[in-house]
Amino acid sequence: MNTQEQLITQGYKKHISSHYSTFKTTDTLYQKLIANDIGKLYYINAWFYPSATYGTTVVEDAVQFEVQFNDQDGNAIMDVVLFEKDACKAEEYFAKMHTLLSLGYYEVY
Question: What is the 3-state secondary structure (H, E, C) of 56-91?
Answer without folding.
Answer: CEEECCEEEEEEEEECCCCCCEEEEEEECCCHHHHH
